[in-house]
């Protein structure tokens, strides 16, 4: 099965590479390209906008990890190397956009409002070479306008360019249930707590505590999507108390985990 998935991903990469330019400023017609996650690191000359109608996308770049639950999307600028992962059953929608028709923006997670979702769905039903001069072109103009105004969300985790610190960060991101204190890791690196704190701020823009908490909360999103009990999610993500998890989750996401999950569980029927 893994071999077949790899072959399918390589086939899609080959098809993307054959496109020297987009046939129109926006490409996203359902039958034009498979809506498929490609784990292998790749890049393309266009903006890519991808969101999961169901499931959670994880986008990895050299400098950051972006976690994208339903109702949100990831904006990937042209030329940025990235790989995309998602659990089985994830429903992906993707748009490829000419960089000439949108402002330059870094890779980030953005909100997909109900109106924007409907615009994307309506656009996906158009022909690849839609009529730019008529109503179809006006729909695309509104779509691009709404995308430009979509607010960002802080659902990303910066990777440091310092090698020892990067190893520590990858470990913590892979083990959100780890409860070892900072002193354990500073001792392992042969530095003081104060030095490790400075390294985190210098190389990630966050303190050790902030980075670790962000990593834990991002790890919680796929678990919530799998409908695990919130108490179990809190424990698996390293929280000793449910109240601490709910407070931290609300600070980052703007709502408690139960409300976030119920909103994200709205299914998109127009496939």
Name of the CATH first level of the largest domain: Mainly Beta
What is the terminal separation in angstroms?
25 Å
Low-confidence stretches: 1-10, 266-271
Derived structural class: alpha+beta
Strand content: 15-25%
Query: Mind telling me the CATH superfamily name of the largest domain?
Result: Regulatory protein AraC
Number of helices: 10
Strand order of the largest sheet: 1-7-2-5-8-9
Approximately how much helix is present in the residues?
Answer: 40-55%
Number of domains: 2
What is the averaged pLDDT score? 86
**CATH architecture grouping of the largest domain:** Sandwich
CATH topology of the largest domain: Jelly Rolls
Shape: globular
- Element-by-element helix/strand order: HEEEEEEEEHHEEHHHHHHH
- Major sheet: size, sense and barrel closure? 6 strands, antiparallel
Rounded to the nearest angstrom, the radius of gyration is 20 Å
Total beta-strand segments = 10
Give the SSE map.
Layout: H1 2-18, E1 26-27, E2 47-54, E3 57-60, E4 64-68, E5 72-76, E6 83-85, E7 91-97, E8 108-111, H2 114-124, H3 135-149, E9 152-153, E10 156-158, H4 163-174, H5 182-189, H6 193-204, H7 208-225, H8 230-236, H9 242-253, H10 257-264
Helix pairs in contact: 2-3, 4-7
InterPro entries: AraC-bd (IPR003313), Homeodomain-like_sf (IPR009057), HTH_AraC (IPR018060), HTH_AraC-typ_CS (IPR018062), RmlC-like_jellyroll (IPR014710), RmlC_Cupin_sf (IPR011051)
Pfam family, one: AraC_binding
GO molecular function: DNA-binding transcription factor activity; sequence-specific DNA binding
